From TrEMBL:
Residues 3-116 form the Response regulatory domain. GO terms for molecular function: phosphorelay response regulator activity; transcription cis-regulatory region binding. May play the central regulatory role in sporulation. It may be an element of the effector pathway responsible for the activation of sporulation genes in response to nutritional stress. Spo0A may act in concert with spo0H (a sigma factor) to control the expression of some genes that are critical to the sporulation process. This is Stage 0 sporulation protein A homolog.
Length: 223
């Protein structure tokens, strides 16, 4: 079931969109905290975003740009500010389509369905893992922190993925090595130690000190 996130500060319009989209057997939710749009996006993991331009605190162009730093999720702008300048700005900031208000709900839904088909017919959905501002994009195998991408090896990426999937829990060294073997990566106890040390160094250099902690006699964890 596809999930749609609605970023619209007019609650009447937002609720109308949410309820209508749900009648098509999709999931839909509205952003509630316009200071934390990116956090709500990461938590909800939508397959498509409907984004207004005029919003409290930061406008839709800002949030589109922030989302594009970590995700290729389809974004449709919905706005009454439908002059050429705003339409061009929406597209250059990473938008996929623009619908002018007022709009027909049937037309909007047709555009939503068409964009979902084009995006996901041959591509798996994006999966994001976030902790303390660091965002791991599983689909793109990238790690982003404070707008900077941190280059990781295949093993480093997989180790971080395993730890973030078990955030707050200690993961044994044996479990990590087993997971890495499943990806055809040769790794033994010494190799794991070296990989974790290198991963920690990269995280610390990026400003993520003590991101991975050692649980003596068990393994590693992020807290």
């Amino acid at each position: 079931m596809y999930k749609v996130l609605i970023i619209e500060d007019d609650f009447t319009i937002g609720n109308t969109l949410r309820n209508y989209i749900r009648t098509w057997a999709y999931e839909a939710e509205c952003v509630t905290d316009f200071k934390e749009v990116l956090s709500e996006f990461i938590a909800y993991k939508p397959d498509l975003i409907l984004l207004d331009i005029s919003l409290p605190f930061y406008n839709g162009f800002h949030w589109c740009s922030e989302i594009r730093k970590i995700s290729k999720v389809p974004i449709i702008f919905i706005s009454s500010a439908a002059d050429n300048m705003n339409i061009v700005m929406a597209m250059t900031q990473g938008g996929d389509d623009f619908i002018a208000k007022p709009f027909d709900l049937n037309v909007l839904m047709a555009k939503v369905q068409a964009l979902l088909r084009r995006t996901y017919d041959f591509v798996n959905e994006t999966n994001l893992l976030e902790h303390n501002g660091a965002i791991l994009n599983i689909s793109e195998a990238t790690l982003t922190y404070k707008d900077e991408k941190i280059e990781l090896t295949k093993n480093e990426f997989k180790i971080l993925e395993i730890l973030l999937e078990n955030k707050g829990k200690a993961v044994s060294r044996d479990s990590i090595m087993t997971k890495l073997w499943e990806t055809d990566s040769f790794i033994d106890d010494n190799t794991l130690t070296v990989n974790v040390a290198r991963l920690r160094k990269k995280l610390e250099d990026a400003g993520l000190k003590d991101f991975i902690t050692t649980k003596k006699g068990i393994g590693y964890m992020v807290v």
